[in-house]
Amino acid sequence: MRLTRNWTRAVAALGFTAAVAMSTTAFAQTKLRWSEGQPNRGVQAENLQWMADEIGKRTNGEVTADIHWGGALLDSRSGLKGVGNRAADIAAIISAYTPKELAAYGVGDVPISNADIWVGMRAIYELSLTHPALQKMFDDLNLVYLTNLSTSAIQILCKDRFIKTLDDLKGVKIRAAGSYGDVLKDLGADVVRMSQGKVYTALDSGVVQCNQNYLYAIEVFKQNEVAKKLTKLDWGQHLSYGIVMNKDAFNEISKENQEIIRAITSDFIDRYAQMMTEANEKALERMTSGDNPVEVATMDPADKKKLEELGYDKVPGWIERMTAEGLPAQDIYDSYTALIAKYEKIRDEQGYPWNRK
Predict the structure, then answer these.
(1) Residue 126's domain is classified under what CATH number?
(2) pTM higher than 0.85, yes or no?
(3) Among 20, 60, 137, 296, which one has the highest count of C-beta atoms within 10 angstroms of its own C-beta?
(4) How far is CA 304 from CA 20, 184, 235, in A?
(5) Same structural domain for residues 90 and 126?
(6) pLDDT, tens digit, 9 for 90 and up, residues 84-109
């Protein structure tokens, strides 16, 4: 009888230990809900999925990320608020959608002539992680900045015309975005604001004659089917476009796994920049070949220089507005451009990370 009681107690103890172990394991496993407004196709989606997969691999499954595509969880405009209140754990933020809340981060959309994807991404990434104003902004929004995206260099696709001179913009109905669109408007263009998803129909029907877009995205949205005149501008890029995580969710993860996620999100910059560069090259090659190719032209060099100067003319206004909001805007801008120069120097001396021996 005594042996039976001892055996029963031993079995109970083992059961309790196993239950505790299972409970601990379950507690240690974190599944992050990731909202993505774009569909699951193209180079951006491929790289976001890579990042989600790497989180699971490098944390040995202790942290996993499940991406909800196509706005199934939150639409693109709701990422900032949705992650802040933890309707999702991770999502993209776009300062053009929430310019007041992301005022300091908006420096990445100032229309300067920085068209190198890797240089731009590295510069805004380092700025976002190190500048006190941006750190405070993310912290106040209950966010942790993870990494950055880029639209890549700005091009103009038109249905039946090239934009070879600044005069060619006058009166043209063009879908455009952000401060770059503001410059085009100042030059006499009739700027229309709409999402890329609506541009195909707008170009086809004549609602707009031209579109501000990016090489890979023209192909993704199939706009080359209805517009055949591409002016290759390579004029700046939108960089106020990042990936953030809910601060509470991030703090619930172990320090070790936080560092792993930091490493992955840094690796993402180099991988994304390489693949986006290659995707743009391949997209241009495909669009300009075949039976019904897109034709390509460039802007007159003197007019292109004037266009870039007009972009830089927007900088003082941005600094003045952001200073009025209580931000150290001049320092943010100076820090950002210094980082651009830093990574241009690294590129020129060492090459891109994927080309180094």
Answers:
(1) 3.40.190.170
(2) yes
(3) 137
(4) 67, 12, 9
(5) yes
(6) 999 999 999 999 889 999 999 999 99
As for how many domains the chain has, the answer is 2
Other beta carbons within 10 Å of 3: 7
On whether residue 309 sits in a domain, the answer given is yes
Cβ(180)–Cβ(239) under 8 Å? no
Question: Both tokens of residue 294?
Answer: 């897109």
pLDDT tens, position by position, 248-294: 999 999 999 999 999 999 999 999 999 999 999 999 999 999 889 99
Determine whether 328 is exposed, middle or buried from the number of CB atoms within 10 Å of its CB (0-12, 13-18, 19+). middle
Task: Please give the helix or strand (H or E) that residue 92 lies within, else none.
Answer: strand 90-94
CB atoms within 10 A of CB 350: 11
Please spell the DSSP secondary structure of 166-235, one letter per residue: GGGGTT-EEE--HHHHHHHHHTT-EEE---GGGHHHHHHHTS-SEEEE-HHHHHHTTGGGT--EEE----
**Residue range of the domain that includes 131:** 30-150+238-278
